[in-house]
Amino acid sequence: MLDVTVIEDPEAAAVSLDPVRARLLAELGAGPASAAMLAGKVGLPRQKVNYHLKALERHGLVELAGERRKGNVTERLMRATAASYVISPLALAPVQPDPDRFRDQLSARWLLALGARLVRDVGSLITGAAKARKGLATYALDGEVRFASAADRAAFIQELTAGVGALISKYDAPGAPGGRDHRIVVAVHPAVGDRQPPEPNR
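The structure assignment produced for this chain is given below.
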């Protein structure tokens, strides 16, 4: 089972968003189960659960883990293909965010568009790497900082911009034979759960 997988197909996305099917995915993320075993947990008849499982299986969200005999019946044990799922903006391709449409470093909506592109691109890279059975070289840094004031935050962002810009200038080799382009995204935003009122852009 994968830790996380990206859903790019619109129909698979629609299937996963159904509340009952999302619950079944969550249950199967904990371990293989049959329709009969799941029926009691989700409060639905076994036949109805089986119907939902077949829909999830058609879109590769669950798979057969094995079979077992129970009396005169052979039960199919299903498992989720991943512990968690992320829906790519490709599932809404005609209306997916385009960060190149506008650029505003102080805009939360531009940051959201960048985040959506990150999900889309990394999801596509993961899918391609899995098909090619190759590794994927990525790096991420995550942390939190508490600024004493808006002025400190502004100074931090100024230094961060200058530092990352200097690194890009130092290592960028546009004409290098055999080189490969990489995208760099750096974001700063209030931590979710922060009860302080949002400050105006400065």
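Interim note for the steering committee: Residues 97-171 form one domain. The beta strands are 2-7, 62-70, 73-80, 82-87.
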